[in-house]
Amino acid sequence: MKGLSPDVLTKEKLRSTFKKHDKNGDGKLSFEELQAAFRELGGGISWYQTEQGFRHADKNESGYIDIEEELEALVDYNAKK
Description:
- The protein is mainly alpha-helical.
- It has 4 helices and 2 strands.
- It starts with 10 loop residues before the first helix and ends with a helix.
């Protein structure tokens, strides 16, 4: 997810922002909720980059990213970009 500084993307910052955008409070992010969270974080992340990060992090292919269990995969994906 090119454009977001690693300094800004601490796990705590991501977790906090993701929880804020978890509209129904189920501990999971839909693609749309993830997009909204990335818009808040800034960095000009494209739809394609968000989609690729979402696919990478959604290890169980549930269509959601579990904030606690799959956050690490999203951070790892960001580090590679």
